[in-house]
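User: Hey, my collaborator sent me this sequence without any context and asked if I could get a structure. I don't really work with proteins. Can you help?
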Amino acid sequence: MNYTDGHTRICGLIGNPVKHTLSPLIHNSLSDMFGINMVYVPFEVKESDVKAAIKGALALDIKGLNVTVPYKSEVIPYLDDIDPLAKSIGAVNTLVRTANGGFKGYNTDVTGLYHAMQDEGIDLSGEVVVILGAGGVARPTAFLCADKGAKKVYILNRTFEKAEAVAEEVNTALNTDVVTPMKLEDYKRVLMAHDKFIALQCTSVGLFPDVNSAVIEDKEFYKHVSCALDEVYRPLETKFMKLAKEAGARNFSGLKMLLYQGIDAYELWHADDKIKVTKEQADVIYRSLMLDVVGASNIILEGFMGSGKSAVSALLADELSMELVDTDEIIEETEGCTINEIFEKEGEKAFRDMETDLLEAITGDHWREFVISLGGGMPVREENRRLLRKAGKIVFLKASPETIYERVKDDDSRPLLRCEDPLSKIKELMASRMEAYEDAADIVVDTDNKTIEEVVGEIVDRLGIR
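Assistant: No problem. I've predicted the 3D structure and written it out in structure-token form, which is a compact way to encode the shape of the chain:
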């Protein structure tokens, strides 16, 4: 983070609650990238204090504010000006200082969602869209869909009157009639009328800890979904997304919407500096957000020798712009000799002790955002598995004994395979380690008959790092 001094400017977030917001990660990272002396701070504000919070921010010369639920409409009376788009939607999420010392309100939820859809190749023009929910997120979502040429937009909600109000507001603002409200229980009418549609999930259903719920759980609904976007991003793969995925639909979380609405707000605050965030810079911050949401500081690859750990970890680290660490290489460098030499001179137990000592170091706070390739036997010890779980997300790269044999049969550097029948030895060792591998793993990825690129793609998808 930037050094804070008497010239440091402040931007922030008001809402309730704000304790779990990811916005500081976005904005403080951007300030670091551009060398801007600014810090971003969340402020939890009571409903009765919204007016006082706006006045206080002005008095403290705060450069700009984001506004989150439940105050996106409540702040409007306290603004000096409002952008036409935000006025049409009836909600603001970004406040920018004006020349006369007040705040002007903008809505970057709409632009952020649009940028996220563009990034994922979602084109709304001529499409049928089904929006689940009629809360604060549904309004800008419906506005965007209608504004970008959707052929038909359905708003499905348990309380019909709320869906009706949103539909009327959007249709009036855009002088259209494409938005249709509907009771949630009547969703089968949409299935009868349309073979395929884009589904946008705009409720809090599925949000942690309610991870096993979806607004609609009928699998027949998801057979009609061509693309699904859940504006929830904790967890990264909600029940809604899983159901869409099982039906063959593309699916995305709301994390990119969060990222791009933040980027759009940051650019508004720094318009005088002509700040423009590049796709490459956005991707760097997105990866940090993903790792934060996934809850892992590192991605750890385990598996038997020849399972592909070295090649996969190298490409994975490159794809995610993370540092690569190979535990065998660290031990060799530390000891000044090869693994073979350690086995010959000190025995296998001494080597396993070295692995445990290294893992204890890896669990320290300074080990963050690494792709770590483990030695094949490292997860066998229960103590090692405990340490590994603290260090990050563990991916078990699995391969058949026959595949392993073909990959390592000409490699003389494997001390455990120096025997008359290497294939039988591989089968024996794999059988003895399988329980430990599976016990440690967060996900299992089969590498048989797959390219390195396919394996890396599956890891990224399964961990939700897209």
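In plain terms: The chain has three domains: 9-106+260-288, 111-253, 296-463. You can pass these tokens on to your collaborator as they are.
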